[in-house]
Amino acid sequence: MYLPKPFKNFKENFSTIHRHYEQLAKACRAHGPLEQKSQDLIKLGIAIGQNSKGGVMSNTRKAFASGATAEEIQHAVLLSLTTVGFPAMIAAMGWVGEVLEKQ
Question: CB neighbours (10 Å) of residue 42?
Fold first, then answer.
């Protein structure tokens, strides 16, 4: 899976913190009843709300890997329209499109 250079640098330079961060992420995912695909689509929505290109692209890859279809992913982006606004939704559609083109 693709990892951006800043993330790789963080992982290398702060390995203990990264390890604890990963453990926290796993504990959060395991705590509730939502299956992986739903978790990934929710996290995609959160990334859209943060206007985070890297987060949107990463969570798109994760959602696709966990079984979400391109249509489900695009629907998740479309749902953000009335919450985050048209410009943010369009930006997210573009970022998602970049990822889906490579799948």
Answer: 14
d(CA 74, CA 21): 29
Give the C-alpha separation, 79 to 103, whole Å. Answer: 22
Distance CA(80)–CA(60), nearest Å, equals 14
Q: Where are the alpha helices (DSSP H) in the chain?
A: 5-13, 15-31, 36-49, 53-65, 70-79, 81-84, 86-101
Global pTM?
0.89
Q: Which residues contact 51 (CB under 8 A, 6 or more apart)?
A: 84, 88, 91
Q: pLDDT by residue (tens digit) across 16-26?
A: 999 999 999 99
103, pLDDT greater than 90: no
Taking the C-alpha atoms of residue 20 and residue 93, their distance in angstroms, rounded to an integer, is 32
CB 9 within 8 Å of CB 43 = no
Residue 44 to residue 40: CA distance in whole angstroms: 6
